[in-house]
Design goal:
The protein is an alpha+beta fold. The chain folds into two domains: 252 residues, Beta Polymerase, domain 2 (2-Layer Sandwich); 62 residues, Methane Monooxygenase Hydroxylase, Chain G, domain 1. 55% of the residues lie in helices and 15% in strands. The longest helix is centred in the last third of the chain and has 67 residues.
Length: 344
């Protein structure tokens, strides 16, 4: 099976509709000056890697086993690292295989009111950078474009390209967190409605679950970025280390925002439960108040409904009217008192 390196261009009068995204999104060789040298085929990659002061930057999207095996042969990757890249269910991590660093980071996108997650696997070598996207992960064409606009920095090698990729991954969490916050604000308004809404509680619980996954995606990046800032002297240029520290600061900000939103969701759930309890107490008080009022005529009727001949006022001409009037008076007085204390 062979793959062609095709780019996706917008359709126009003289152009056909764009074809579906290929597994090989892009593959470019950059020279010592940070400028493009060529766009090699897969079979020519191993030859391009022998160029002095040049490196290859390849972007893949959900490649199959055949393509991954070809990539492993061309770049000389470790089989265990390739096996991890094949399975898109890895935890965020950074591992060293010989002279190649293998990195796994989780990505997120807010789609149709839900946070969808994906993965990006990265191979960093002395003269190559490979990114493999799985699931909900934006294209790194933007990161590549930023690097190409600063060839002096791209001349530092693949570690600067890695910085651009990780910076985009981290920055993409900001709009996701912002949309989760907006959704939480909307749901908070529904919490104070008089009618209990089960859908609101379910949505709040869903946000809590999504925030937990966001935290599990962002927090491990602290260690990854710290290691890139401090270690791997043969792979990460000294001039690039400060950029990884900057990305680390952004990741910490996102983690703090996620933690704050998680606390707000927990507080919203607690407030809702409290309001439900208060509402139940109000209903209980109202029922108890009406039960007390209805107990008065019930008691009067029960007493005068007994079959005794000698009862007070039983033979009195106005006894019935007095009993009714007294019952109504006591009920009205009790209703007024319960209304005054807030039970009705």
């Amino acid at each position: 099976m062979s793959y062609s390196l095709t780019s996706i261009r917008p359709a126009g009068p003289d152009r056909p509709e764009p074809r579906p995204l290929r597994p090989v999104v892009n593959c470019v060789v950059y020279g010592a000056d940070g400028l493009r040298l060529s766009e090699p085929t897969l079979d020519a990659i191993s030859d391009e890697l022998e160029r002095p002061d040049a490196f290859v930057w390849m972007g893949l999207h959900e490649p199959d086993d055949v393509l991954l095996e070809k990539i492993r042969e061309e770049f000389g990757l470790h089989p265990l690292a390739v096996e991890d890249a094949r399975n898109a269910h890895q935890r965020p991590k950074i591992e060293l295989y010989g002279d190649t660093v293998f990195i796994v980071v989780h990505t997120a996108q807010f789609v149709e009111g839900e946070v969808q997650f994906g993965e990006t696997h990265v191979f960093l070598g002395t003269n190559f950078l490979i990114t493999i996207r799985h699931g909900a992960s934006a294209s790194y064409a933007k990161a590549r474009g930023v690097c190409e606009q600063a060839p002096a920095m791209l001349a530092l090698g693949p570690s600067f390209g890695l910085y651009a990729v990780l910076d985009q991954v981290v920055d993409n969490f900001f709009p996701v967190v912002a949309k989760v916050e907006a959704e939480l604000t909307r749901l908070e308004a529904s919490l104070f409605a008089e009618r209990f809404d089960k859908a609101t509680i379910e949505r709040l619980y869903g946000l809590k679950r999504q925030l937990t996954r966001l935290r599990l995606a962002v927090t491990p990046m602290h260690d990854i970025l710290n290691q890139l800032h401090r270690f791997f002297p043969g792979l990460v240029k000294e001039d690039v280390r400060v950029y990884f520290r900057d990305v680390f600061d952004h990741a910490v900000r996102i983690s703090d925002a996620i933690a704050a939103l998680g606390e707000m969701v927990s507080a919203a759930l607690t407030v809702n439960l409290s309001m439900v309890s208060v509402g139940q107490n109000e209903i209980t008080k109202r029922l108890a108040g009406w039960a007390a009022i209805l107990a008065i005529p019930t008691t009067t009727g029960a007493i005068y409904g007994m079959n005794f001949e000698h009862m007070p006022e039983l033979q009195w001409e106005y006894g019935y009217f007095v009993a009714i009037g007294l019952t109504v008076t006591v009920c009205v007085a009790l209703y007024a008192r319960l209304k005054q204390v807030g039970w009705l």
